[in-house]
Design a protein that fits this description.
The protein has seven helices and no strands. The chain has 128 residues and is mainly alpha-helical.
């Protein structure tokens, strides 16, 4: 499959973002970084994790990432974790989440917008 390949640069970026998210989840218990910055960063992590393996237009990956984040948040609104019977599994509560928030949706949009500042391929869309 021609659109599948491994991108070492995206791997290292995704790894750094994953470590940052893990450190925030484990050690930061405040009212700003964990709930807001963590949600912005998770958009970047998902974007680079996908980009690490998939060779399609960066814009498509960015849009998919935003829609995926919205989908996870919507699943929280409908209490998917309870429907799946995973409410007592800590890993599921961390990955899927437990409560819907419009603030989270806004953070995902902010993360999406900041991607266009961070990613060279996305920046080119505005320079062409």
């Amino acid at each position: 499959m021609k659109f599948l390949r491994f991108n070492r640069k995206c791997f290292f970026i995704a790894l750094i973002l994953f470590v940052a998210e893990a450190l925030i989840a484990l050690y930061v218990h405040d009212d700003f970084i964990r709930p807001f910055v963590g949600d912005v960063i998770v958009v970047w992590f998902i974007y680079y994790a996908i980009k690490m393996f998939v060779d399609i237009k960066s814009l498509y990956i960015a849009i998919f990432t935003l829609l995926f984040a919205f989908g996870v948040e919507t699943a929280q609104y409908f209490q998917l974790i309870n429907i799946l019977g995973l409410q007592n599994k800590k890993w599921a509560r961390i990955v899927i989440g437990t409560s819907f928030s419009w603030w989270d949706m806004l953070c995902y949009v902010v993360g999406f917008i900041v991607l266009f500042l961070l990613d060279k391929e996305l920046r080119k869309l505005f320079n062409d």
